[in-house]
Every structure is written in structure tokens, then in C-alpha cells.
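#struct-help
A.M.: can someone run this one for me? Single chain, 250 residues.
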Amino acid sequence: MSLHIQNLHATLEDGTEILKGVTLEIPKGEVHAIMGPNGSGKSTLSKVIAGHEGYPVTAGSVTLDGTDILKMSIDERSRAGIFLAFQYPNEVPGVSNANFIRAALQARLPKGKEIDAVAYYKSLYQKMDLLEMDRKFTARAVNEGFSGGEKKRNEILQLMMLEPIYSILDETDSGLDIDALKIVATGVNAMRSPDRGFLLITHYQRLLDYIKPDYVHVMAEGRIVKSGGPELALELEKNGYDFLKEPALA
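D.P.: on it. C-alpha cells below:
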């Protein structure tokens, strides 16, 4: 079973094509990383998978364990097991972290079933401790007044509580110092499982020093142009994207 992207094309609302035939398969149990120059379509891919309405799909398919998700709403995709950690997490004034996560979990339960409050807070606090988050953050509004590192930890806390099937992390390492990066990576690695797949979008090898990918893909001009093992990220770190200038890839 897998998240399967086949010949995916998508545009901006003005018709400018951003994704130009992306094909990628992420089986459960694997971590795939996408790297590439600015403007190559990496973040657009994450938003299209999650259901952002600002990027109309013009061709191709995205299936989740064989089910077409392009016809699903954002909420339906989330319930089906898709999770997106944003490059720039949104603030939600007036809604506490604890209530936000609890509401998301409650929405996934069968009608009439309620979350056990004691078990919920026990699980929440365990995960906050792993992420070295002060428990006072449960009462604070979602991401309001948080530092960049605190926002990223909060995204991983949501990931850990919601336990999605496929997690897309869009530049989760952006803006993190080395200590915060290690903590975030610890949370992600704790969620690795044969029943869960990950797509990491990043510019830098340093994230992949702590979250070891099974495969690395290079994206350029809206397409996957090269794939390989973890060593590919090291090659990119050393040599950059000069190979993209080769005539075969023009």
C-alpha cells in the first residue's frame, strides 16, 4: 500500500503551470526526501496532495492506498490519513493547543464516542516531554506568539497525536537551530513505523543527518529529475545542482 502520485500536473489560479508531470510512489514504512532549487515545485506538490484550492490539478492522479484523493475535501484527506506540516505554521488565535488537538482527534472518532480526558492528557504530556515542550503550552493559543522553533515543535506534536498514515513535512528544518532540529527529528523518528510513510521536503542535507531517508529525489522545473539513495543528498550538498544544466535535462 502506498501514496502514489502519477503524472501530476497542477497550476496556479492564473493558469501558470507549476507541476509538470510528477510521478512518485511512497510505500508505507519508507521515508522519501525531495530536494531541489527554489521554485522547482516542492511546496506546491505538498499543497496539492493536502488539497489546497489555490493549485488546480489539470492532469494526473494521487491515490492513497488505491483510493483517489483528488476528489476529496481537505478535511476528508486529513481523516483518510494525510498530514501536512507547514513551512510557515499558521496561528489560530483564541484556540488553545490542547483544545485544538483534542477537537481534531474527536472528529476522527465514530459518532457518539468521546475522548477519554485522562488518557488524552497523559498521551499529550508524554509527547510534549519528548519534544521538550513546556506543559504550559497546552493553554496557549495555537502558535500565537511562538518562536519559529516552537511552531515547528508544535507541528510535530500534532503529528504525534494524530498518528497519520502519510506525513508530508514541508521544510520542517527551516529556521531551526541545531538543538531544535535534533528535537524535531527525535519526534519524527519516534513516529517511523512499517504502517506510516513520510515525505520530507528540504533544501539541506543537515535534516537528513537526523532523519535518515530511504530515498532522495531531486525536483526541478515541476518534475522529478533524479532519484537515488541517501548518498544523493550528500552529492547535492557537495556539488549543488550543476547537473541540472546538462542538455539531457534542459
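A.M.: thanks! The helical segments are 42-50, 74-80, 97-106, 117-130, 148-162, 178-190, 205-210, 231-239.
D.P.: also worth noting: The chain has one domain: 2-92+148-249.
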